[in-house]
Amino acid sequence: xxxxxxxxxxxxxxxxxxxLPLPEVRLGIVMLxxxxxxxxxxxxxxxxEGGAVVSIHVDRSAPADELARMQAALxxxxxxxxxxxxxxxxxxxxVAATQAAAARLLASxxxxxxxxxxxxACLPLRPVAELRQYLAHHPGTDFIESVxxxxxxxxxxxxxxxxxxxxxxxxxxxxxxxxxxxxRLQRRLGLTRxxxxxxSPHIGSQWWCLTRRTLQAILDDPRRREFDRYFRQVWIxxxxxxxxxxxxxSARIESRSLTLAKFDGQGRPHIFYDDxxxxxxxxxxxxxxxxxxxxxxxxxxxxxxxxxxxxxxxxDAERVEAVLDRAAARHRQGRPGLYMQSxxxxxxxxxxxxxxxxxxxxxxxxxxxxxxxxxxxATGRVVxxxxxxRDEVEFAGGARIGPGALSSNAGLRDLDPRGFLAxxxxxSDSMPVFLHSPRDRxxxxxxxxxxxxxxxxxxxxxxxxxxxxxxxxxxxxxRIAARLHxxxxxxxxxxxxxxxxxxxxxxxxxxxxxxxxxxWQALCSALRPDEGITGVPPPPLRDTGGLRxxxxxxxxxxxxxx
Length: 562
Fold this sequence. Notes:
Largest sheet: 5 strands, mixed
Radius of gyration: 27 Å
CATH class of the domain at 352-556: Alpha Beta
Number of helices: 20
Helix content: 25-40%
Strand order of the largest sheet: 5-4-3-6-11
Oligomer: single chain
Structural class: alpha/beta
CATH topology of the domain at 352-556: Rossmann fold
């Protein structure tokens, strides 16, 4: 078995100078299989040849002859087979299978230090030795996406908090009508239940990598029977059981998965094909799921060693997810002028709601210092502040009375917010410009997004920048971040709708910080589309020195900031 090289050392976190020996990593794999067992056996060999040991659970529905061939093919490998059970999507059977396979693994190899959960359709993209080396450099860390269900809308469609407060005695796929009727009945009667005492429901990807200490503590928890009984009535517990209980036992959580598993708009796992070869190769992700059994180019190309100096490179799953998100959006929405039955123009899908074009700068002012003043000087436009702010309408120059004798009183604005915005745009002598953010009132999001006159420049995640200079306790920052993140997600859901008629340009915070000139030039072009303003330097950026530590701390506290 290939272990970390003898004499491998890491810098001491205390001084940054003294060298400490890296802990030895013995990796154990729990693999769940139900079909394509020949391919799964090939994946087992990849894991074992990389120095891992494997515990395999094969669904009872798999043909006996295929299982026999798999067992014969792996007779010379450090692999064991857990007792078989019938597994069904969305039920506790998947958790029970994982528990059984994990217990068999830990009992068979007492020296195992880390356990990773995979499926037979998971393909290692990087050598197993690199994964073990990566884990050695993160001692005592549990890699598992664990998001607070009460504060973050993690799910794609379906139930979120209700999966923990209702009971689900019927399998969704096998008894869909009974499932739906049971949910409706509980809602009608107001029947709810509470989680076990001391348990805060968390949710996340099914695929994790835990330390032996944490996994053993979950399996040996003295209240396990109580927890198992509760989660048997939770919908899709494989996305919440370990994700919740790890919060009771882990000393250090990195709330992310080392496995790339993407879902489409209907909650089904994305399948990778041969034409994803280049994309996966650039991702530096350790494991990808779910790979099509016929993707020969992928199976021949991976696992692929990293270039020199990148053996410890961080996985870049966000790049892959962004590409897949854009592809999914194109699939759902089509392109202008390209129609099909589901995308044919419908009532209220066209026509302007306002009298002239206007520009909305969402999150941009959180990126640049003194943005309204700088934009006004560069373009000659009147740039208002947050006209939808909760406490006061921020007209340009701090005026109490705005265009058309509109008052800065937020209460008067909120009596008829649509009329206020329409009047502001109608009464402005030239193209009006105003700021917007998740801190503001959001009741005009749909109005703006469906208005062809609107020009939106959006920097997502910029709401975190003002939090960097706060001296509040972290718990308060966490609550504020959760509220702002939810608000931004709802706004982005609006922008992802087929009803959107506004012109929208979007950047993530990382993209904007890496190229602020691009954002500034787009702003100047939007405010002066006919004059082509160039050569005007952007205003200075706000201080973002503590952004990455804050992002990681929020993520490890149960949030999922962008």
